[in-house]
Amino acid sequence: MKKTFVLFLLTLFLQQTHAQGGGFAPTNLGGPAMKYQGLRDTDQVPDVALREQGLKEWRLKRDTTLAKAKKLLEEKNFTAVNQLLFPYDYLEPDDALFYEYLGKSYFYAGLHQPALDCFVISNDQKKQTELLFFIGQCHEKMGNEKEATKVYKKGAKEGNADCKAKLTE
To answer: Is residue 27 in some structural domain?
Structure first.
């Protein structure tokens, strides 16, 4: 009798919670996702003219924005770097330095997956052996030791001292 009563109360409570909207509801289904959560270059651009205008503004502000980002990175103000650069991420500029700085802001903030995405984009646009160390670090921090070792070996082969040191550990 007690078990039945407890089960009845639990069922009644769950029904009431669900009726009030307190039940499980996944968030952001069908809504805009941040770039690193989805596949890049597959997003449909709703307004091409707006994107072109944004790219034009980016080209005008590029040098001063990247100079500010570099200074903020040197000051270790990673949140400010992210706030400065992230609004331009949706434009997907073909700028290796942009993605390097954005990646470093994510990396030092402890966000290793978006950092990895940015470093890979930057490295694809302009090969840099320094980025191989950061790519390896991202893989290592996310628990992918095998991939990290592979990247470190590639970096060591290309002459990156940090990658060589990491392999000797």
So the answer is: no
CA atoms within 13 Å, Cβ hemisphere of 37 = 7
Does 102 lie in the same domain as 66? yes
Tens-digit pLDDT profile for residues 81-94: 888 888 888 777 88
The domain in which residue 93 lies consists of 45-109
Q: Which residues contact 88 (CB under 8 A, 6 or more apart)?
A: 54, 58, 65, 98
Our CA dihedral for 53, 57, 60, 62, rounded to 10 degrees, sits at: -120
State phi, psi for 24 to the nearest 5 degrees.
Answer: -65, 130
Distance CA 88, CA 122 (A): 15
Whether residue 82 is contained in a domain is answered as yes
pLDDT at residue 16 greater than cutoff 50 = yes
Q: DSSP characters for 55-123?
A: HHHHHHHHHHHHHHHHHHHHTT-HHHHHHHHHHHHTT--S-HHHHHHHHHHHHHTT-HHHHHHHHHHHH
Is the domain of 88 the same as that of 142? no
For 109, the token pair is 């903030």
